[in-house]
Amino acid sequence: MQKFLKIKxxxxxxxxxxxxxxxxxxxxxxxxAYFVVYDTESKAMEFIPNPNKDAExxxxxxxxxxxxxxxxxxxVSGEFGMKIKPLLDSLKIQMIVLKEPEKRIKDIIEMLNH
Amino acid sequence: MSPRIKVIRKVSxxxxxxxxxxxxxxxxxxxxxxxxxxxxxxEAIRLSDYDILNHHQASVMMGISRPxxxxxxASALQKIAKAFVxxxxxxxxxxxxxxxxxxxxxxxxxxxxNNPEKEKPVNNCPLCGSQRVDKFxxxxxxxxxxxxxxxxxxxxxxxxxxxxxxxxxxxxKQICPHCKSFMKRKGSPNCRNF
Lengths: 114, 194
What we know:
Chain A is α/β, with parallel strands linked by helices.
């Protein structure tokens, strides 16, 4: 039963530069424009504008809170700041670093569905 | 005034046991509260007395300052001494820590990812599902990885069987599993037909 529940919740957050499937992956995590929360099971997705886009400091930890409140298990981004890794490790969220700025959200979702 | 927020301490691996119990005829007669050793205190003992690092090196490993490390270490010794002398159990739990995770690299999509759940081995890339993942260590610089990343194929000149080329292993020493002849690099001038 527990295993079943674990499989059910497979949400992935992707950092995005815009709010459409055609927009590209944002190379920063804390100050990205949008988060795309994609559920690999139900194929549902949600675009969340990042309130910390222009934050002076502490954008990373605040974004972690926002994403973690959505029960995300993986995060795809171009880069993660130095304050993020301890936080995500303690929350058991997986980080995926993809250094390809021209990749579109559509492509990444396709890759996730492998 | 509220106290200063504690830095999250880095612990490389969770301890193999959850605690210790005293044994002998007198043990367990008095119902004593167990001593609670925190994860960071366990890690301090491990780094300083098992790995024999000095406090400065150990503090860097845990991502805290040297004085903080010394304080954690002192409190760990105090707790262990208390458990020894008074014959108490001690349990290892709690503390403001995170467990360090290892990084992996996928050769197919070129992404890097970590594995926050140590219990599960990494077999597939979480992004593209490819099995071509390997451990990424910090000592290898990016250029090293670019050198070793090889997407060439080895090909058998007789039957056309292809396999991925392994870095550092010459194609001409590889043997085709089907017709037992030596392989060639695909696309090289001495590789005819294919």
